[in-house]
Each structure stands twice: as structure tokens, then as C-alpha cells.
Write a structure and sequence with these properties.
By secondary structure, the chain is mostly helical. It contains 4 helices and 4 strands. It has one domain (about 5-129): 2-Layer Sandwich (Nucleotidyltransferase, domain 5), CATH 3.30.420.40. The relative contact order is 0.16.
Length: about 130
């Protein structure tokens, strides 16, 4: 769970984090397929490099990776009405509040459950049919 102080910091910063951008590719990236990508923090100035902007840039950077996946679906003309966030990150208030602006659509967070395992099981079952 994200500490309350980190949530407060991220939500205190303006959208765009004063130009501070974090690319959170600490272990590569899967969408797009960039397994050798590395993390980067750009836009650092004396004015932009605050605790609040660093926290906001971290959340926006993580969500931008998910947004790239949504953009890929849009490019295929897949109709998207809402995004459903699951997993540990979805439990963060900062993620839940910032995601709609980054995704450009409403966001739902279902009650905690094993949705990833359920999705994998459904996908496996569809192959067996």
C-alpha cells in the first residue's frame, strides 16, 4: 500500500508536475515492447524538482505506460468506454484520482479480488474450446 504521505504529495502537485517526467522503466517495458528500456527522470529544474512534483511524476509516469496500451487499442479502433484498474497500484488514492486525466476516460476500481488470475484462467479456457 502506498504511504499516505506519498499520496498527499502526488495530489498536491499540479498535473504535469511542472514539466518533470519520470519514465519508470526500471525493468524494461512491455507496452510497447521495450525489454531493454531504462528509467529516466527529465525536466529537472530548481523550480520543478520538489517532493510533490517527484511524487506526481512517478504516478503519471506509471499511468502513462498503461495509457500507451490504451492508445494501441484505440489505434485498432477498439471502442473504449472506461478503464478498469486492478492490482496493488489501483489501491492508491493518487492513482485512482490521476488516472482518468491520463487515460482520457472514466476509471473504475472493483473491490479487491484475484482478477489477474481470473483473466488468465479465462484466456486459457478460451484456447481449449
Amino acid at each position: 500500500k502506498q504511504p499516505a504521505w506519498a499520496v498527499q504529495l502526488a495530489l498536491a502537485a499540479e498535473p504535469g508536475a511542472a514539466g518533470l517526467t519520470l519514465l519508470p522503466y526500471f525493468e524494461g517495458e512491455r507496452t510497447p515492447n521495450l525489454p531493454d528500456a531504462t528509467a529516466a527522470l527529465t525536466g529537472m529544474t530548481l523550480a520543478s524538482t520538489t517532493r510533490e512534483n517527484l511524487a506526481r511524476a512517478a504516478v503519471e509516469g506509471m499511468l502513462s505506460g498503461l495509457g500507451a496500451g490504451l492508445d494501441a487499442l484505440r489505434a485498432l479502433d477498439v471502442p473504449l468506454r472506461r478503464a478498469v484498474l486492478i492490482g496493488g497500484g489501483a489501491q492508491s488514492e493518487a492513482v485512482r484520482e490521476i488516472a482518468p486525466a491520463v487515460f482520457g476516460m472514466p476509471v473504475e476500481v472493483p473491490s479487491p479480488g484475484e482478477y489477474v488470475a481470473l483473466g488468465a484462467a479465462r484466456q486459457a479456457a478460451s484456447v481449449l474450446d
